Structures
1.
Amino acid sequence: MAKKTVQVGLLGLGTVGAGVCRLLQMNSEQINRRAGARIEIKKILVRDKKRKREAAVAPQLLTTDPQEILRDPAIDVIIELIGGVQEAHTHITEALRHKKFVITANKDLMATAGADLLALAREKGLNIYYEASVGGGIPLIRPLKYSLGANRIERIMGIINGTTNYILTKMSLEGMDFDTALAEAQAKGFAEQDPANDLEGTDAAYKLCILAGLAFNSRVRFEDIHVQGIGGINQRDVFYARELGFGIKLLAIGEEIAAPAAAAFDPATGAASASEAESDSRSGSAASSGPSTLPGRLALRVHPALLPLTHPLASVLYENNALFVVGNAVGEVMFYGAGAGALPTASSVVADLIDAVRNINHEVENGIMEADFQPKKFVPKEALFSAFYLRLQAKDEPGVFASLATAFGQEGVSLDMILQKRSIAGIAEIVLVTHEVEEKNFNRALGRIQKTPAIKELNSVLRVIGK
Amino acid sequence: MAKKTVQVGLLGLGTVGAGVCRLLQMNSEQINRRAGARIEIKKILVRDKKRKREAAVAPQLLTTDPQEILRDPAIDVIIELIGGVQEAHTHITEALRHKKFVITANKDLMATAGADLLALAREKGLNIYYEASVGGGIPLIRPLKYSLGANRIERIMGIINGTTNYILTKMSLEGMDFDTALAEAQAKGFAEQDPANDLEGTDAAYKLCILAGLAFNSRVRFEDIHVQGIGGINQRDVFYARELGFGIKLLAIGEEIAAPAAAAFDPATGAASASEAESDSRSGSAASSGPSTLPGRLALRVHPALLPLTHPLASVLYENNALFVVGNAVGEVMFYGAGAGALPTASSVVADLIDAVRNINHEVENGIMEADFQPKKFVPKEALFSAFYLRLQAKDEPGVFASLATAFGQEGVSLDMILQKRSIAGIAEIVLVTHEVEEKNFNRALGRIQKTPAIKELNSVLRVIGK
């Protein structure tokens, strides 16, 4: 029997919690109409009932006892917004045990325990919704699960940390240095007082766990990702990058390097290759199994990278986020928007709530991919392929370029771009961009260069992402 | 009882039809797993069984008799890809009568008869899926319906015609003239041999009918949209626009101009305005009705416009499409990708097919917004607000700027930018950009200018979209 009112328990009333209350008030008529029921917040878990709050909620809704929510049979859905892993995990597990649907914006929890919690939810005939855990208000989880569901995802590439993107944009467009840009980000509330989690790429890597898990149908742990932060990026690198036609972005990249059986095709025309046409005619039915989805190896990384200014991700500026996805049918698509903020994040939470309420009232079977995770292998760091950007100081003397070229050549690394401006006091600043190369070869070349007497200092090494 | 195999009838085996067959073969294992059933194409309607085809399908699947598909009780879903309005309408109506779910990529049909067909589908407990009718492979329909479902959509702004975007990009980035760019678009298959439908904005306006109907929950007819094509755009305009920091794009814009009751708020912080905080405390419950969704008036238009180069839509190049959406919670989001092509479009069709199969097997209640269309008023063309760009030839003599400024000033139009380069043979080319103004005032100012003796020729008038 469809419920006319669905009661919700809210765990946490911080920025996002207040945003959710506010959005439910602001657009109540539309939200209730789309959910097909009246949504009512019955209880809100807080740490301190007396604290003055932004959100205008009736005091009698507040409680400090989680069990008042988790064990209330009248509550069908809980929204977990307390953050952190341990406590949230305990509450969500208990909520599932009490047959409640779960909505969470908890990135750390979904990155570390998401697969297990989703499996538990499925076992109970419930679901966990987590659109808000990555990318704030940008629709990412639902499009990956549903809209792109017919695609084998080949690559995802995201700007999914607003703090670092804000800093890099300020450095690039306004010529600001790193420290000033960071201070401004902190002043504007885009960066925490201890910004390590953002700057070192940890935040982006957790988000990549969630997105890559979904995109590639696999369990991804933080440890499976090669992570490097934006520390050490210098104003000069940003300047040279622009001169060469690149922006510098902190990118989270996931790729499935397909097994060799997958055949080539042209996504624009859909023209079948000869070998596939053969297999089609043999099979005799339009829907028979053609070339299948062979599990590939996953290459997962978070690092700053030079990206051509013509790439759609290069125009994602300041605190904005975006995810660029390459599917084997759709080609390239991108999702762009505000990656954080009270109301944008609430937009995702309440979209999940509408879905949850519809599912409660219509007993929809839940979860289409999460419990299907397949074990996949990961590509070790040394076997990743990238082009590289280097900035170095060398003695301005004959033969320096030759010795550089030799060092690279001996390891099979070829050069794509070279830039040298006027030298000062006998020292020239040289910028090099290599063609794409396996990391282990590049590292060997780097070792050779560092031993070259004419090279005084190696200032920067950054990866270059071509497309 | 869940069906292990769901049989599908395909109407049409052109480019997209072939793409659908190909995608069902290519990713069959994954598609069937996500659908929860084996998907099988049982019959394909074609006009000529003997024609040689790209798609490798068994000849026995082909039929020239639509009734073989529409009346086959074993077929649960039809995919309509024949295009055109009349025949497709007849087939879809008949399919619904025979209790079949419908998937269509038919933009013209959904724009002109979508609301009625969706109502009929709902009445029958079925659904019509039409993700592929707009934006090819880009997820647009599903995000508007679900991911952004908690938002009151304030504005949608799209580059939804690949042909015109290709031509304008070639003119802007490669300095090509209009005719050469059009010829190249035709040679590459991005433009039809008769390109009027694209160039005049008709194609974009049909797509706007569908998107605006969904975004603003209203029935939108082609006649409700103010349409202007890209004819007459000159290489000089593209050049000046770039100099002033703009790109020129054919934009499809829909806005809901809210009733005055809606209160101001800051989407980034979610800070409540004073009046709303009051209404909240009166209501006493977090989920009670706050400021409600009052129906506003819709302003709908398709026209070329100058757009700041920093706008996310400005970097949508060549044949790509994108939709920029502003919601009252999420703020600004954008969806980007290939707006056409066999496999991208098939990606959307098969995503719909997965949904349809899941709905067939789990008896989900269907359609959440389409049957809720509310009647809304439309803003007449004269009452739209835009800034304007003008290019004109004037005698190079004292007092010309003064007479221009006077003509504008008398109608309350203020100027934002003025550009004049060296004059040739006593004639100066002048470029003006106005501040935002109501169209009827601008038109009166234009009338005054055309009567000014020093103005020899008015070359171009284009709208400027600020944000």
Note: Chain B has three domains: 5-137+343-372, 150-260+296-338, 385-464.
2.
Amino acid sequence: MLGRENAVSVDEARDLLARHIPAKAPSVEKLEIGDCYKRVLAEDLYSPEDLPAFSRSTVDGFAVKSSDTFGASETLPSYLNVRHEVFMGKETLFGMNSGAAAKIPTGGMLPEGADAVVMLEHVQAVDESLIEILKPVAPGENVISAGEDIRRDEIILKKGSLLRPQDIAAIAGIGLKELSIYEKPRVAIISTGDEIIPPGTPLKLGQVRDINSYNLAGLILENGGEPVKKGIFRDIYDEIKRAVEESLRDSAMVLISGGSSVGIMDLTAKIINGLGLPGVVFHGVALKPGKPTIGGVVNGVPVFGLPGHPAAVTICFDVFIKRVLRMLTGACPKHFLERKTLTARLAKNISSVHGREEHVRVSIEEREGELWAVPVLGKSGLIRTLVLADGTVIIPPHKRGLQEGELVEVELF
Amino acid sequence: MLGRENAVSVDEARDLLARHIPAKAPSVEKLEIGDCYKRVLAEDLYSPEDLPAFSRSTVDGFAVKSSDTFGASETLPSYLNVRHEVFMGKETLFGMNSGAAAKIPTGGMLPEGADAVVMLEHVQAVDESLIEILKPVAPGENVISAGEDIRRDEIILKKGSLLRPQDIAAIAGIGLKELSIYEKPRVAIISTGDEIIPPGTPLKLGQVRDINSYNLAGLILENGGEPVKKGIFRDIYDEIKRAVEESLRDSAMVLISGGSSVGIMDLTAKIINGLGLPGVVFHGVALKPGKPTIGGVVNGVPVFGLPGHPAAVTICFDVFIKRVLRMLTGACPKHFLERKTLTARLAKNISSVHGREEHVRVSIEEREGELWAVPVLGKSGLIRTLVLADGTVIIPPHKRGLQEGELVEVELF
């Protein structure tokens, strides 16, 4: 029963992985900014220019010297002469002295000498070239100054930023067309099992189709990796070893999926141990589902041996693989922004075994405006339980269960 | 001041859109299942076969007739004869009578006549062909029966499902290779403004680069649409009208971005009204930022006129466009699973104007284990405020502000 009796805790397993997987910057590629959504920035990004390059009005109105408007009111307006107009997209070539105003559209370039804009609403025209200002403006009011948004040479985004729509927009705004981006880590998926057949092959009795590689590929894609399916291999030492060896050469992480029986998991552990140091770092975790999981590192590359039950694959990915993959992408997000959770009331008592972290699949239902987490019952070998579930509730190892009606945090799929 | 004085509320604006945008199923395409992650299923999916196709063991052990084990214990074991072995991936051709047991691996096919599996741990070998059963098993114990996961002709996923990794895995499990998928809705982005230049063009004073189309394209991608940039157009009625007209022919939604001044927004409204019915359904919303927003529908196609301020673009997308886009994708998710939120303590008092829904950008900070939402100050014309923010806090129209220390719900970007 190797590894089952001396299972480590989830935290210990995570620590072992963190201790043995070396920090290593991914390779870098150059990409057009339009291809960089959801990608990870590989450089600290400094602005090559001021944004905006000139002081702009944020309203339709009249550019003025603010000091000319101090004290102005509806009963005692300031009178200003209008000699010029600012046009959108054109450089404003005239300057302004005290007593003058210039018509300006939203986004227009402020004339030299002006330091604020009075909104149209607070202006009354006396004639073609004379206006009344009915309300004072402060210096800088209704203006975005040159460089106020982003200053030249200012750092705008840090290495490791996961680029969002607004980040790409800011980068477009400062005139950059290409970025240094971390390449997506390639994650090899090795499916094993004498009974597993690829989709499209007619099914004989005793055989089942490859389910887990489709689950893993999707999870890898969602988390910033590039899945590489290596194929389905028989439960033979040399065959699987050759597949892992080849994968270690061209992948940032290797997932061996399909073992469930003790014999197969031992075979997987032996292969990992035979390929490089430190080899297996844990074999068996106090986790349900996912107990037989193997975590290993071979010459710096993380290698996981995953139990074959579909639910175990999803939970192991969530508990271990996801955070390793995130590290391999080079992204440094605020960790608390990564979790997608929801608070709900538990619809049923759940018991659990003390000393083991249990992940219970739940579907979320709305009943009279309140959200309820309804446990999805069924063996962890059933893929359907995952299809019916919206997420999981985690019962920590020190608890023996959760009570109906309790508020629980659901980690959404 | 058309549309500014008679601004509608956010809820009224949403109702107007819902009332005027017709429900219309998107076009359908056939895709390989490996290309269907995050796509929307265009058909109710029935299983063509049982999963599994045969009864399988979920453990390493011995297949038995459960009735032969009733009453068995360590002191009084049941004795069973072992004449056969089950092999992985092979059809089990022998049957079993009372008094017999067959060695079976995890995943192996149960012999005819067996109805349960005794785990290896509860078996002791007497000799080559005789074993002691030390613990009884119930009928069906350690077995997944034929069709127990998914039954033939059972509905497995409904039309409108947004396909997750586990859904694709289940589909692979029942042998399907292709799916009917809704095509992604094409969303036209029309950038307008005499001062806007494309990236790569040298910047002259008075000009600014196109920022908003990069923000919108990313938001559209994230929400299941296909952004189609139509280019940058001058603020001339005929030019913009022609671009909108062309977009209406090949797009499921049209976004006109860039207007901020009253004149430009009125131009946009006039164009929308001139192209078909009902035309503009609202012009001006009690929303900050995003007040000048125009919502329209032209012959069934939603058309939005968006203010040019970057923050307004993001908020308008969040408040209006996202839900319209989701509808156009054909997806029918549980709405409460769609929001990515986080509860945090507000780090500063914020005041707001009664009667207006305000969206305040915040960054999230962890202080002594607690999450704080720190308002990002700055004009809504600044793209940097969006880069610094992790999400928004919404102040509803009936409130006049929020207090420092209050618990708030942050909608994460």
Note: The two ends of chain B are 32 Å apart (CA to CA).
